[in-house]
Every structure is written in structure tokens, then in C-alpha cells.
Specification:
The protein is mostly beta strands.
């Protein structure tokens, strides 16, 4: 009986992940570690050449559970007004895979001595693949599932605005502006699937407690049509401007189903000098699904390459 429940739950969760895939991109719990992943306006704001290597394994122990890997890099041109960014990613959930590359252009305008606003635009190119052969079906002769993987290249764009100071930031961005269709064919009407426009709102501030400890609260709100609206709040204590220890809470309203999907998040980050950062986050579901998996693990490695003529005037909290 227990085995039967696990099989049913696994099947439902995989199907939910496939439905979500058609509407929204993968997310990271440490969104403040890599803001460029969500907002193109962030490109170049660190004023050095920066990069983030990230990996997220969701619902450990469940077959077909989503996995995501990404690399983002960005920097500012010598005039310091223009930022350029690059993102390469791979998102795999069940039989569906999304592999792509994004190129970003951002332009920064100083508002005053403390505040800068940056406008960004990203061009996106994704390779969408659906492997029908990996799906277990009752009738192996079902013509709808014949053939190998269906694959297509999809182009799209995103835009965002990012306002920041040394200890504060706020951003708003829209992903998949064109709501491009997948363009794949066969089985369950996949040719009708498309990316839906996604809206992100993020903000955070660093509050000094004493000379050795700071506190950084941050929020993220995400909305996409026909998918759960997501809200997340995090609080991180920063020790000696190097060790980051925090926790978060995420909630998502289910679509056409009563109730919410809630989870708690534990996270840490450590800075090695001014050049290297590592981070880890663990997500745990508070609902029944948490009984059938070992949570979600997320790892990030970040680096800053500082040129001889580049001076970092203040610690980088974002």
C-alpha cells in the first residue's frame, strides 16, 4: 500500500512539473545570489566581471523530478554605463528538456550619488525537447507517442528595470515577452504549448546591527498565467561581511485546487576574499509531498574578476 501511494504521488508530481514547465521557467531559492537570472537590468551592476555557476536538484528521490543547471556571466563596459550579460542553462523535468542561451544588454543611469537605475533587455534562444520514448503508457502501439524526441528552437525576449544602492535594491522584470510557442508536435497536443509571460518583483535591503553583523531581508513575488502565484520572503544574517546564514518561507496558491504549497528554506553563503563565493540552500515541503522526497538541494559558485584599474568602493551585498 505504501509503495502504491509513492507511485501515485510520484506520477502526480511529475505531471504537475510538466504542466508548470509549459508556463514558467525554473526558479532558484537563492535568487539574490544571481539576480541576472531573473532581471536583465542587473547586468554590469557589480562593475566587475562576475559569474555564477548554479545547480538545483528538486524533489530528491522522485523519478523524473526537475533538475536545473545554469551559468551566468556579466560585466560593465569601460564607460560603466553599459552592461553585457550571458546566460546558458539546462532545465530538465520528466520527458521535457529546455536548453538555451540568453544575451543581455543593460544601460545604467545615475539618479544621484547613491542611487542608480538600470534598464535591461535580453534576447533568448531555447531548444525545447520532448522525449516521448521515456513516457510509460498502457498501449505501446499508441500512435500519439510514436517516434523519438520532438525538438524545436524557440526565440523570445525579456526586459527589466533594476534600481539599486550599496545596501538596497528593487527590481521588476517580465520574461517571455513574445509568449513563443514550443513548436513541437505529436502527443497530448504539445504543438499548442507555449511559454507564458512571467512577472517578477524583487527587493532587498541590508540593515546594520553592529560593526560585525548585518541583516538582509529580501522578497520575491512571481506571477504567470495559469500557474500558482509565488511569494517568498527571506532573512539572512551577515557576519563580518563574509558569512551569510539565513532562512526563508515560500508559498504558492494552487491553480483550481484549494490550499497552498508551502515550504521552508535554509541557506548559507561564504565569501573568500573579494573574488569567490559559494552558496547552498535546502528546501523542504511542509505539505504531504514532503513525505515522498528528500527535499531540494541547490548549489551556487560565484566569482568576481577585478581588473587592475577597477576599484571596488564598497562591499557587494547583491
Amino acid at each position: 500500500m505504501v509503495l502504491f501511494k509513492k507511485i501515485i504521488t510520484t506520477s502526480v508530481m511529475v505531471l504537475l512539473s510538466l504542466g508548470a514547465f509549459a508556463q514558467q521557467d525554473a526558479g532558484f531559492s537563492m535568487y539574490f545570489f544571481d539576480p541576472l537570472y531573473y532581471n536583465p537590468g542587473y547586468a554590469g551592476t557589480r562593475e566587475v566581471f562576475s559569474g555564477i555557476l548554479a545547480a538545483r536538484n528538486q524533489w530528491i528521490g522522485m523519478p523524473g523530478a526537475p533538475t536545473t543547471q545554469s551559468v551566468t556571466m556579466h560585466g560593465a563596459l569601460p564607460n560603466k554605463q553599459v552592461g553585457l550579460g550571458l546566460k546558458v542553462y539546462n532545465d530538465h523535468a520528466g520527458p521535457m528538456k529546455n536548453t538555451g542561451i540568453n544575451l543581455t544588454y543593460a544601460y545604467r543611469i545615475p539618479v544621484n550619488k547613491k542611487t542608480t537605475v538600470s534598464f535591461g533587455l535580453t534576447g533568448m534562444l531555447s531548444k525545447i525537447s520532448i522525449d516521448w520514448s521515456s513516457i510509460q503508457i498502457d498501449d505501446p502501439n499508441d500512435q500519439a507517442f510514436e517516434g523519438n524526441a520532438a525538438t524545436n528552437w524557440v526565440s523570445d525576449a525579456s526586459a527589466g528595470v533594476y534600481v539599486y544602492q550599496s545596501r538596497f535594491y528593487a527590481g521588476f522584470s517580465v520574461n517571455h515577452l513574445f509568449q513563443s510557442k514550443f513548436g513541437t508536435s505529436d502527443a497530448i497536443g504539445a504543438n499548442l504549448a507555449k511559454f507564458y509571460r512571467q512577472y517578477y518583483l524583487t527587493s532587498g535591503i541590508v540593515l546594520p546591527i553592529n560593526e560585525k553583523i548585518d541583516f538582509r531581508p529580501s522578497i520575491l513575488a512571481k506571477y504567470v498565467h495559469a500557474a500558482p502565484a509565488v511569494g517568498e520572503i527571506n532573512g539572512t544574517f551577515i557576519f563580518f561581511q563574509r558569512l551569510f546564514l539565513g532562512a526563508g518561507f515560500r508559498t504558492a496558491k494552487r491553480v483550481n485546487i484549494s490550499g497552498t504549497d508551502n515550504m521552508i528554506i535554509a541557506l548559507m553563503q561564504f565569501k573568500f576574499g573579494n573574488y569567490l563565493r559559494i552558496g547552498y540552500a535546502y528546501d523542504y515541503y511542509l505539505n504531504q509531498t514532503g513525505s515522498y522526497n528528500s527535499g531540494t538541494h541547490e548549489f551556487m559558485l560565484g566569482w568576481d574578476i577585478i581588473g587592475r584599474k577597477t576599484k571596488v568602493s564598497s562591499p557587494r551585498f547583491f
